[in-house]
Amino acid sequence: MKPTTNIDIQKIREDFPVLHQKVYNKKLVYFDNGATTQKPQSVIDKINELHSFTNSSIHRGVHYLSGLMTEEYEAAREKVRSFINAKEKSEIIFSSGTTASINMIAFSFGEKYISEGDEIIISEMEHHSNIVPWQLLCERKKAVLKIIPFDENGELIISEFKKLISDKTKLISVTHTSNTLGTVNPVKEIINIAHKINIPVLLDGAQAIQHEKIDVQELDVDFYVFSGHKIYGPTGTGILYGKQKWLEEMPPWQGGGDMVDKVSFTKTTFNSLPFKFEAGTPNYIGAIGLAKALDYVENIGVEKIKSYEKELLNYSTRELNKIDGLKILGHSKDKISVQSFIIESIHPYDMGMILDKLGVAVRTGSHCAQPVMDHFGIDGSLRASMVFYNSFEEIDILIDGIKKAQSMLK
Ligand code: PLP
């Protein structure tokens, strides 16, 4: 029996043109949403409209179109502010994605606050983009990177985290939600522990923002980052939220147009927030497209999305567990609708190839989280990541596909 749902899935699917196609003459079943999500027609139309009628570089023009684009771009910033409940619009920096946002903080925060011997704490379940920027920073500054381990359920071991903190700890940067294990980390607890000793916390929200309500003031988080393309917005867009007090103190990370106040060969002064961190012509059409995607999500309702995706998670867990030799990686109490799994005697790539030919798009490999694979002693897994436009019937197609592939590969 399939669970009942409070979401009109057929109506929602009509909004996503990509979903209505066949691949290899099979109905497309798209379960690679952790990598990127599909775009609703409203986002596609908005981007088309802007390119067709209003395109003009923002902030610098006195003419009509430039004014119009500037207004829409700044309205998009306000939309993001309200979506994550930031206190100030100036705390919202547009970037090209999570990776860019983390690198920006690693460079800028690192430049100002990290010195030789200082320590930064991340976790064992990070995406590479929340590992490598810190490794590069530690190499530049001769600082030390410390790692919070996770347990057999894929949950961070908080007692170990506490042991890692020292008077040299300068920043904690952890993922809100794991892209591989699906774990929703106890970020409020982590922030409370860190703030008791005045250590700032950065949360990588790349896999959280599309699944649950984020309130940065309630979390009291210092930095929160995410990508637009993972929340039904355009690629090449992203957000860096930072508390004003940090952003004010941090130096710019890239120099160029728009981020300056006055430029001369003797002295250059910088623009105010948020422009200090937005050098060059930004992806303003993308940013406006992202705001449109947030409208779309809000219209459905974040809580509704969360509860439906929980049903998808529960149903897929039950059905995947019935398959002989299949092992799900990650059994945290609080988990998003992401299933990573391995199947006895079958290489994930071979399984992924067969599923593809059956029209089912899953991800195979390390999911840019090689330390997670190392934890399990494997070099890769399959990953089916589900969102609100996926259905229980699609999960059935995945399950049938796995069984079919199993019989072919055994
Ligand atoms: N962090 C997590 C948890 C992710 O899942 C991803 C992408 O999969 C990223 C960071 C990087 O995001 P992007 O490639 O959009 O910068």
Rg, Cα atoms, Å: 22 Å
Largest sheet: 7 strands, mixed
CATH fold topology of the largest domain: Aspartate Aminotransferase, domain 2
Low-confidence stretches: none
Name the hetero compounds present: pyridoxal-5'-phosphate
By CATH, the superfamily of the largest domain comes out as Type I PLP-dependent aspartate aminotransferase-like (Major domain)
Lateral arrangement of strands in the main beta sheet: 4-10-9-8-7-5-6
CATH architecture annotation of the largest domain? 3-Layer(aba) Sandwich
- Overall, the morphology is globular
Number of strands: 17
> Mean pLDDT, nearest integer?
97
Main structural class: alpha/beta
Measured as a percent range, the helix fraction is 40-55%
Spell out the key features of this protein:
410 residues, alpha/beta, Aspartate Aminotransferase, domain 1, Aspartate Aminotransferase, domain 2, 2 domains, 7-stranded mixed beta sheet, 4-stranded antiparallel beta sheet, 40% helix
